[in-house]
Write a structure and sequence with these properties.
With 51 residues, this protein is an all-alpha fold. The chain has one helix at 2-49.
Length: 51
């Protein structure tokens, strides 16, 4: 009985670690994309401000 309990606990722990890793990867992609977009907007302003 305790084996099945420890297996489910182990499974939920590994599931939580997998979810946390996926969340961190997603957050990193969002941060990178946001900075890329902000840099593009700044580039547009810099090019638009030239005379």
């Amino acid at each position: 009985m305790s084996d099945s309990t420890s297996d489910s606990t182990s499974d939920s722990t590994s599931e939580e670690k997998r979810r946390r890793k996926a969340m961190l990867i997603r957050a990193g992609i969002y941060v990178f994309a946001t900075h890329l977009f902000a840099g593009f907007v700044l580039l547009l302003f810099a090019l638009g401000g030239r005379k």
